[in-house]
């Protein structure tokens, strides 16, 4: 009611003072508050801008009133406002919004670069610029911007995570790990940073740390605080990778740990072929143990494992399932070939090559 009364007063004042740009501006602003689609607002703001072409507020509000009706004209008005007051964050943000909606990425990039140079400590603009550069694949520029941001604000979890992602894409894996770790230290339940961190640890061979962080994330999943079921895949993969590079005695324990966890990886990721690949690799590794040691492996009961040959047969079956899902995957065919050769060696029957 108060705003409606204010509108009536402003209308009367604008009529009484037709050459007063201030009253037209006030009227336009009040009308916008009441209804962003009000044509009276646009008309009043056009008059205000004509009467005072140096009022950044008039052009800003005019751009605001046109943003759903005519984005091109709205952007032109806002750019005029930015020329008058180049440090105005509200103007810069609205230009950013409309250029994004228009898909004018080159103009958006120029706008953000220009504004960042004028207001170097404005973190909003630097973040937008960094993420846009990252989106466009300009990794060096994105990393440069994000490094500047974290020197100004070391508590931005999103930027640390994005910085880690940029480092990863550029191949700076240790730097990526450090960035993801910063994000995790700031926000211990950050699932995105945790997953990326685990993946980077796998790439760099820091498998114990990958296992430790996988277990931490699994606790969140099992307590219902997260639905990041892919962590079960990362967990068993990390154990398997560590087993593959470990000495004989440690390898046995790691394989048992793997076999104790693989069923959850299957259950939590239905439709995924990776559990089949991991299980087959582990079975093939276990098949190389002496039969007396082999019998001490704690396989899932559903596998009904009684002999080394059973392990190889199941590995072959799982590799076939992977090939069925990805028939053009050369590495899957190679895995199957190795398993078949292992079966031949075990059976000492050359006819196995024909299978």
Structural topology:
Layout: H1 2-16, H2 21-34, H3 39-51, H4 56-66, H5 71-84, H6 89-102, H7 105-118, H8 123-135, H9 139-152, H10 157-170, H11 173-186, H12 191-204, H13 207-222, H14 230-244, H15 248-259, H16 262-268, H17 274-286, H18 291-294, H19 308-325, H20 330-347
Helix pairs in contact: 1-2, 2-3, 2-4, 3-4, 4-5, 5-6, 6-7, 7-8, 8-9, 9-10, 10-11, 10-12, 11-12, 12-13, 12-14, 13-14, 14-15, 14-16, 14-17, 15-17, 17-19, 19-20
Keywords: Repeat, TPR repeat
InterPro entries: Ski3/TTC37 (IPR039226), TPR-like_helical_dom_sf (IPR011990), TPR_2 (IPR013105), TPR_rpt (IPR019734)
TPR repeats: 157-190
Question: What this model shows, in words?
Answer:
Keywords: Repeat, TPR repeat. TPR repeats lie at residues 157-190. InterPro entries: Ski3/TTC37 (IPR039226), TPR-like_helical_dom_sf (IPR011990), TPR_2 (IPR013105), TPR_rpt (IPR019734). The protein is mainly α and 355 residues long. It folds into four domains: 1-85, Tetratricopeptide repeat domain (Serine Threonine Protein Phosphatase 5, Tetratricopeptide repeat, Alpha Horseshoe), CATH 1.25.40; 102-153, no CATH class; 154-228, Alpha Horseshoe (Serine Threonine Protein Phosphatase 5, Tetratricopeptide repeat); 243-355, no CATH class. It is built from 20 helices and no strands. It has helices at residues 2-16, 21-34, 39-51, 56-66, 71-84, 89-102, 105-118, 123-135, 139-152, 157-170, 173-186, 191-204, 207-222, 230-244, 248-259, 262-268, 274-286, 291-294, 308-325, 330-347. Helix 2 runs parallel beside helix 4, helix 9 (139-152) runs antiparallel to helix 10 and helix 15 runs antiparallel to helix 17 (274-286). The longest helix is centred in the last third of the chain and has 18 residues, at 308-325. The chain is elongated and about 105 Å long. The termini are far apart. Mean pLDDT is 92; it is low at 349-355.
């Amino acid at each position: 009611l108060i705003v409606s009364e204010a509108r009536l007063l402003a209308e009367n004042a604008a009529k009484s003072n037709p050459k007063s740009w201030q009253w037209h501006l006030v009227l336009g602003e009040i009308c916008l508050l009441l209804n962003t689609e009000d044509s009276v607002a646009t008309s009043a703001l056009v008059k205000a801008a004509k009467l005072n072409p140096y009022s950044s507020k008039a052009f800003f509000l005019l751009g605001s009133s046109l943003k759903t009706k005519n984005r091109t004209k709205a952007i032109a008005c806002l750019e005029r406002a930015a020329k008058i007051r180049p440090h105005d964050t509200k103007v810069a943000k609205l230009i950013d919004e409309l250029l994004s909606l228009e898909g004018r990425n080159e103009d958006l990039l120029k706008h953000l670069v220009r504004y960042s140079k004028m207001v170097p400590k404005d973190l909003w603009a630097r973040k937008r610029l960094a993420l846009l550069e990252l989106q466009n694949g300009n990794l060096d520029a994105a990393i440069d911007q994000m490094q500047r941001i974290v020197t100004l604000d070391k508590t931005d979890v999103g930027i640390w995570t994005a910085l880690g992602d940029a480092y990863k894409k550029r191949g700076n894996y240790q730097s990526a790990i450090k960035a993801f770790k910063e994000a995790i230290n700031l926000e211990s339940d950050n699932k995105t940073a945790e997953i990326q961190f685990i993946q980077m640890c796998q790439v760099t061979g820091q498998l114990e740390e990958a296992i430790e962080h996988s277990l931490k994330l699994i606790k969140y999943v099992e307590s219902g605080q997260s639905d990041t079921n892919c962590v079960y895949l990362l967990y068993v993969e990390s154990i398997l990778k560590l087993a593959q590079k470990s000495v004989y005695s440690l390898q046995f324990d790691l394989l048992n740990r793997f076999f104790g966890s693989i069923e959850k990886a299957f259950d939590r990721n239905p439709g995924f072929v990776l559990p089949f690949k991991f299980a087959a690799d582990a079975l093939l590794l276990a098949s190389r143990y002496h039969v007396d040691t082999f019998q001490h492996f704690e396989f899932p009961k559903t596998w009904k494992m009684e002999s080394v040959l059973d392990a190889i047969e199941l590995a072959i079956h799982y590799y076939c399932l992977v090939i069925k899902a990805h028939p053009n995957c050369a590495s899957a065919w190679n895995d199957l070939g190795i398993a078949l050769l292992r079966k031949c060696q075990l059976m000492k029957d050359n006819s196995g090559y024909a299978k």
